[in-house]
Fold:
Amino acid sequence: MKRLSGPLRSAAGKVLRTAGLVRSPAGQPSPESSFHAHFYLRHNQRRQEHLASLGLPIAGASVLEVAAGIGDHTTFFLDRGCTVVSTEARLENLAMLRTRYTALDVRQLDLDNPVDLGRSFDIVYCYGTLYHLRRPAEALAFMAGCCRRMLLLETCVSYGDLQAVNLVDEVAGDPTQSVVGRGCRPTRPWIHHQLRQLFEHVYIPRTQPNHEEFPLDWTKPPDSPDALTRAVFIASRQALENRQLTEDLLAQQVRQG
Structure:
C-alpha cells in the first residue's frame, strides 16, 4: 500500500490536531507512523496478495470491514466494486479513515463491546484483529450475525492441539494493538471449533502468504516463544467449490506460489 501523499498527510494531521488526538513526540506513536512502518506495509502486501490468489467470489459484494485501522486494506474491496462499511474502535484511527475516504460509510465499532449495525453484509472482513480482543468468542458471534455469505479471518494464533483462548497483555496506547490492553492468542482448533458453531462451512487455505509469520508446519512450534504466528480461515454459509481450500484443519500447508 502507498503512503499518504503530502496534501493528504497534512490534511489528516490537521484533523487529528484539531481533535486533540495527535500525540507528542514523547508520547505514543501516531496512527500513520505505526501503520506505515516498513514491516507493516510489507505485511499488508503479502496478506492481500494471498487473499487475491484464493479466487473467492468477492467482486461487487457488500463488505463490513472491522478494525480497519487507518484503511490500508480498504481499497482491496473498493477496487473490486464492493460497497464497504469500514469500522474502527479508536477515535484517532477513525479520524484518519474519514480523511482518506471521504465518501465511505465509516463508523465507530468496538468488537469487545459491539453494537447492532442495523444491517447485514455479504462479506465480513476481519484481518489482524481477533488476537487484539479480550472477548473473541463474542466478537465472532457478532460478526457471524452480520454475515450473509463469508467471513474472511486472519489472526495471530498459538500452536497446540487443544482449544484455548490464551489471553495476553497488550499496549493499549499503541494504535495497532488492543484498545483495552488485553488480547488473546487462540489456538487454531479453538477458532475452527468456534466458526463451525456459527457457519455451515469452515475452510483453511492450502497455501500461506509469502511472509515468515505464516507457518507451513503446524507440528513444529517456533524456537522463540515470542514469535508471532498467523493463520487464515474462510467461513461460509454455502459450500465453496475451490481447490485452494479444504475443510480439514491442515497440519501442513505450502507457500503461496
